[in-house]
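Hey L., structure's done. Input below.
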Amino acid sequence: VFTHGINSSGVYLLGGQPWIGKSTIVLQLIQSFKENVNVAYFSGEEDSNAVINRYKRLFQSSPDFKIYHSTNLDDIIETTLEEKFQFIIIDSIQTIYS
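Output:
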C-alpha cells in the first residue's frame, strides 16, 4: 500500500469498502516501525479493547503504542501535542468533529 514509504509530516488517507482490512493494514504498518516511532492510534468507531484484541490476534503480543477512543479533533490535537507523538492514526476520519 505504501510502496514509496512514509514521509515526515505527510498526511495519508487510506480508503476502501467497509471490512476490507484498512485498520489491519495500519496496524501492520505500525508494527513495522513501532520501536523507533512514538505512535498514537485514535479510534473513533471501535473502543480501545477492540483495537488491542485485533493487534494481539495479528502479532501475538500486546501493542506498545498508545490507543485512544476519541472523536473530538480538539482533544486529539491537544493529546498529540502534549505527548509529542511522531505518527498519528485517526480511524475513522468520518467520525471526527470539531
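The mean pLDDT is 90. Helices lie at 22-33, 48-59, 73-83.

-- N.
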